[in-house]
Amino acid sequence: MAQLNHLETTISRLLVEGLELEESPKEIESQNLFGVESCGLDSVDLIAAVVLVERHFKFEFPPETDFAEVFQNISSIAQAVCQFATFAE
Known about the structure:
Blueprint: H1 2-18, H2 25-29, E1 32-34, E2 38-41, H3 43-57, H4 67-70, H5 74-84
Parallel strand pairs: 1-2
């Protein structure tokens, strides 16, 4: 659990800095990233977020990944990183 919390913090910082968001990392941890009542990210931001996460954690998502689902929020991204990144083994 502590490792997942640390991972979520790392991801939220990565996205705030990489996407130059006005929100703080703590603020986006509890929000949806896309759609109504969200941080207001769009499809271009989604592509950038995917690239940021893949480069930072040194892995690639499988081609069949539903990025809209995986990148709903920080928690769902962290779960996917745990599933696909090699350090999770």
